[in-house]
Design brief:
alpha+beta; seven-stranded antiparallel sheet; four-stranded antiparallel sheet
Length: about 210
Amino acid sequence: MRTIRRRLILAAASTALGAASLRFSRPLQAQPSRDGERSVIAQATPASRETATVRWRIFESASGKFKVVFPGAPIRKQTRVRTEIGDVVSTRHNAGDGAGTTYDVTYDDYAKAGVARLSPAKLLNAVRDGFVHKAKGRLVSEKPFAVDGIPGSELEILANNGMWYRTRLLLVENRLYQLTAIVRPPTRSDEQKFFDSFQLTGLIQP
């Protein structure tokens, strides 16, 4: 069991924290939407003068089965990582606000057989450890949260380069959702609006 957990930590370090390498100083340019993805302008009040020109959008992914608000149309990237517990397909959407904050929604589809070997709590713990390892930082806080009755874990991580990561992990069957706001303090911007806007769509609720 310990060996499986170590493998999951390494898989998480390769997929779950791909956002850790993102360093955006201006809004990202969007790629064409696909897989039924669409975005519309959201009526949102800017949190600061720096973000006054940012047009927040409601983004919905049919394949990802979620919707959330982003500061502009997000960029989509998909990768596949081969691990000893099966392939992990990672799909990432991210956008910058032009004020030093990057917002990221990633969902990782794990092999069902690999996920079945661990409890949800152990899997989330393994992913958490992967985040901290990849960021070469320290875990500042961890607390529970829920979306539509599905329990998850919220983390705050301070990386060794001074970047601040606030991340929510939510496991739905064999799909792990990761919402991340990447900030260089003291900028905190609209991160709470981003987290509060996340909704699951097209999923069977518990």
